[in-house]
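Cross-posting from the chemistry board since nobody answered there.

I work mostly on the small-molecule side, so proteins are not my area. We synthesized adenosine-5'-triphosphate and want a rough idea of how it might sit in this target. Sequence and SMILES are below. Is it possible to get a predicted 3D structure of the two together?
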Amino acid sequence: METSILDDVRKSPVKVLMQPCSQTKQLTHLPKRPPVDIAFSELTYTVREGRKKKEKTILKSVSGQLRSGELTAIMGPSGAGKSTLLNILTGYKTSGMKGSITTNGQERNLRHFSKLSAYIMQDNQLHGNLTVGEAMHVATGLKLGKDVDKEEKVEVIKEILETLGLLEHSRTMTSNLSGGQKKRLSIALELVNNPPIMFFDEPTSGLDSSSCFQCISLLKSLARGGRTIICTIHQPSARLFEMFDHLYTLADGQCVYQGSTQSLVPFMATLGLVCPSYHNPASFIIEVACGEYGDNTRKLVNAIQNGKHNIRDGKSFPTGPIEKLNNASEDKVGDAEENRNIAVDPSPSDNKDGKSSSGNVNLFASYVTNDIAKDSEGTGDGQSRVVIPMDLSISEKQDNVQTPLMNTGNQKLQPYPISEALQFWLVLKRTLLFSRRDWTLMYLRLFAHILVGLLIGALYYDIGNDGAKVLSNLGFLFFNMLFLMYTSMTITILSFPLEMPVLIKEHFNRWYSLRSYYLAITVSDIPFQAIFCVIYVAIVYYFTSQPPEMWRFAMFLAACLLISFVAQSVGLVVGAAMNVQNGVFLAPVMSVPFLLFSGFFVSFDAIPIYLRWITYLSYIRYGFEGTALATYGYEREKLKCHQAYCHFKAPETTLEELDMLNADFTIDIIALVVIFFVLRISAFVFLRWKLMSQR
Ligand SMILES: Nc1ncnc2c1ncn2[C@@H]1O[C@H](COP(=O)(O)OP(=O)(O)OP(=O)(O)O)[C@@H](O)[C@H]1O
């Protein structure tokens, strides 16, 4: 057999292109984590689709083993079930699944598992309005506990960025990073707490061949450090394919190959499927799985026992009974030794460091020396490569570090490394930073409020104290409601769903609780909305000559502020429950009844009794009533009037016509506050439901 890059790596840590060790770096600040082997058995995943809810089986009783220290590729033709399998293994999808998943031989506990794993999704899901450094700062703040002080966090950021070749881009906005850099940043963000299991969905999609190589080199190095690295990949080039240690291939929801990449071609040959010379083995297995060489799926599935067999290097191909799953057998010991040999840095002193900290089982409290050799120099073919072998000395710690995984019973583990109050504070600070940088959210909104304020001021100039223009003034009051409602609602409907993919990723990777996040985003926009509303109201109130008393202005402003907060909450409910397209259409449509029953178009008395209940739900009614009472209520003196007959000269007449003579401003305010809280809680419930329904 040809000597592959992988062979070279196994024999010597310094031989291959990937690891020239031109420069040795040490990651000294990553928390120590246990190595984790994953096994799954008889995994079946079904969904129900269509009107008749017909059952569709996507994964058909597949089994497999994914080991620490190995880079595993999940391959297969399009629609074979790769993403589904990955989603199940990560714990992202839980419903509709049957079978067992174990970690280090123990039944997987999803809560514990999620703390040990990170899922890097295909689209990176980064906040474009943060610099690389800021994004890392937030990640370390959220993912490292109080035990790690500020200086150490800065060191962690520096080391990871340097290792991943991003240090020089630490001031670059993430939206300006290249595809490969974005992918590396996604990895860097998750690497902060050093998860022993990392899942990647199509990490090379959208990358050029050089960036693909860099990316897979990076994953390989992470695996060498003792992590379990699993990624789905479509059809890697022969050069990339060789870099994988382990291959898991699916066809039509069944496993057609599981084992080392080198064993693939000889294994297929034993079944009469001979890979042509100079043909990429990755392409060959995909072609076979697609049926280009006849229907061989059944033959392969039977030969590999649908994933129960695992073809290891140097082992004969399976003929006898099925290999035991979750094996911690002599085979495993040998592999661990092999991993250690690959990962260990030439420097003996570094290795000693690794040993000295091996007795500590606390996941966060102690640190281990990680040896990093980085090559960011040209490789002779004009391509820049980043190579990062990391050593976690897992084999020495294995006995000890399995303990946290196994204690899944009564042991009470903190769900997050930091308190929810601190999570709230960090997410709030980040959201405020976005707001400051987001043009649409800030400057455009400010501009719109000032412009519309001036326009309304000019249109309704000096009508507030004119008895002949009361109807126009009521139109002005109603327009205020309309404007404040739509501006606050639409911006939330447009911006909130865009946050959703990042929220899904970060929440799934346990950066923060949904509660902390929601509270932070709820609070973050309130000051801005309040400032815009105050500016708008001050302009229109002054130019339209509403009553000059300060207390009336305060009442008017309070009603307007509450209307914009309530409308923002409606936007949150709609944004949490549906996508932008549906939300932009439905929210204004759903607001129509509330506008109709606001008391402006039809007074309460004129509304048919069976429809009156809608007025109680109409927040616009409370706002409109509040502003009407602020301007015409509370024994306001008669308005000036230059006409012979002025019907609305006495302010009470206006309130009488509106059927608001007995209205109470306090009740309006209380009603708005109640509606505000009900909507905010509903938005949270919808958000939780949406996150759960994805799974
Ligand atoms: N919720 C669902 N409802 C119906 N069918 C589904 C659902 N999820 C997945 N499928 C189907 O299951 C099959 C496997 O989907 P999956 O996304 O896992 O494939 P894949 O191997 O990742 O494909 P690709 O490489 O094209 O991304 C596809 O035929 C897909 O249409």
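Reply from a structural biologist on the board:
Welcome over. Reading the output above for you: The longest strand covers residues 54-66. Residues 5-342+350-406 form a domain with the Rossmann fold fold (CATH 3.40.50.300). Happy to explain the token format if needed.
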